[in-house]
Amino acid sequence: MVTDQLSTTFAALADPTRRAILARLTRGEATVKELSAPFAMSGPAISKHLRVLEQAGLISRGREAQWRPCRLEAAPMREVTEFAEQYRRFWDENYARLDSYLKTLQQKDGPDDPAA
Predict the structure, then answer these.
(1) pTM above 0.85, yes or no
(2) Is 71 helix (H, G, I), strand (E, B) or coil?
(3) What is the dihedral of CA 8, 10, 14, 17, to 10 degrees?
(4) What is the pLDDT of residues 19-38, one digit of tens each?
(5) Residue 112's pLDDT band (boundaries 50, 70, 90)?
(6) In the chain, helix, strand, coil percent, each to 5?
(7) In this structure, which of 21, 28, 57, 78 has its CB flanked by the most CB atoms within 10 Å?
(8) What is the pLDDT averaged over residues 30-49?
(9) Burial class (CB in 10 A: 0-12, 13-18, 19+), 32
(10) In the beta sheet, which residues pair with residue 67?
(11) What is the DSSP letter of 50?
């Protein structure tokens, strides 16, 4: 089954543990042990989360002797940002129309209006 990159990224981001791992990686590289420290789960469970993130292209794992640091790969997030941007513009336009409407109502209910 072929899945587009945006769907793969959203699927990886759907889990709060994976989002927390990505948040930790924004501060720099970390080992699997460092990434698993805040979670009450087994090493294999963390490794499974890391595999999902790696397959989505959100992290990469290096090799430095026996140390395999994980690092954030933020490029797939650009597509998520572009997708969400469409909706931000939609809501901005709706809020602008609402603001305009509220101003119109305020002008109708000016200081001379006894209901004000």
Answers:
(1) no
(2) strand
(3) 70
(4) 999 999 999 999 999 999 99
(5) low
(6) 60, 10, 30
(7) 21
(8) 92
(9) middle
(10) 64
(11) H
CA angle 57, 62, 64 (to 5 degrees): 175
Among 12, 21, 1, CA closest to 76: 12
* Residue entry with tokens 């501060």: 27
Q: Is 22 exposed, middle or buried (0-12, 13-18, 19+ CB in 10 A)?
A: buried
Residue in this structure with the two tokens 């909706």, named with its chain if needed = 87
The tokens for 116 are 């004000």
Instruction: In whole angstroms, give the CA distance from residue 71 to residue 98.
Output: 43
Cα 102–chain centre separation: 33
In tens, the pLDDT along 55-72 reads: 999 999 988 767 789 999
Mean pLDDT for all residues in the chain: 88
The interaxial angle of helices 5-13 and 16-25, nearest 10 deg, is 100
